[in-house]
Design goal:
alpha/beta, binds guanosine-5'-triphosphate
């Protein structure tokens, strides 16, 4: 099925963007061209009538876990990571604004001079009005990943689907497709399989949260232009993780 002109299947989605997605080729920092391209794809999805919320990571700027592994206090390192996600959120909002896509940033840690505080009902109103809502600062708590923030916010705003954007990997494979010739891609997987086999979709806390709240997760390649629109239009791309056992 072509995405062009097709009605959106999903009413409300939550897009999880890793910090890495904002960095482009260099792998670190923010590449404005790359961010503009992502913003364009988000705008196209909104244009189809789908409500889009976004959770951004911060790994392009700072990784809490790495700081901790090099001797820093874990909680402090994680708070630094949360601040990194706010920087990414502002970059994405700027890019959306330049493309005339209405957006609001909400932070899990209050910093009112920069963005709105996270208020669930307000976020949902923004979405109903067709605004993209970018959730920043993770869950606001150390020891949790931005994957968990994505699962939590998706449950709170009653999203129909989490779009788990990956770079250069078009789904979940039984083995590393970059290293093993003949690695098999899954069309569909169950949450328990992801957990039991340690398939790197999202971390275990986040996966469990999705399982408990019956939120499907679509793992797809952000690198292929137009994939966000394809996903919200219900095209079969990537790997879908949900309650049913794998085929
Ligand atoms: P409506 O109530 O639907 O009109 O939503 P709105 O977001 O347009 O209204 P509001 O007047 O609340 O916000 C206007 C602008 O101020 C938006 O860009 C908001 O993101 C921003 N804004 C609202 N509250 C805060 C806040 O606490 N801190 C910051 N920095 N900006 C805020």
């Amino acid at each position: 099925m072509s995405a062009a002109g097709a009605p959106p299947v999903y009413r409300r989605v939550l897009l999880k963007l890793s910090g890495q997605a904002m960095a482009g080729e260099s792998g670190t920092g923010i590449d404005p061209e790359v961010v503009t391209s992502i913003a364009g794809q988000i705008g196209d999805a909104v244009g189809l009538g789908t409500q889009v919320a976004v959770v951004v990571g911060g790994g392009n700027l700072w990784r809490g876990r790495e700081g901790a592994s090099r001797g820093m206090d874990r909680a402090t390192a994680d708070y630094m990571g949360m601040l990194a996600t706010v920087i990414n959120a502002l970059a994405l909002q700027d890019a959306l604004e330049k493309l005339s896509v209405a957006s609001r940033v909400q932070t899990a840690i209050e910093m009112k001079e920069i963005a709105e505080p996270y208020i669930r009902r307000r976020a949902m109103r923004h979405l109903e009005k067709g605004r993209v809502v970018i959730f920043a600062a993770g869950t606001g708590n150390p020891f949790f990943s931005t994957d968990t923030a994505a699962a939590l916010r998706a449950a709170e705003i009653e999203a129909d689907l989490i779009l788990m954007a990956k770079q250069g990997t078009d789904g979940v494979y039984d083995r590393d497709p970059n290293r093993v010739a003949g690695a098999k891609k899954y069309e569909e997987l169950g949450y328990l399989e992801v957990l039991n086999r340690g398939l790197g979709v999202m971390d275990a806390t986040a996966t469990s949260l999705c399982m408990d709240n019956h939120i499907p997760i679509l793992v797809f390649d952000l690198g292929r232009k137009g994939n966000i629109v394809r996903a919200v239009a219900g095209e079969r791309i990537g790997t879908l993780v949900r309650g049913e056992p794998a085929k």
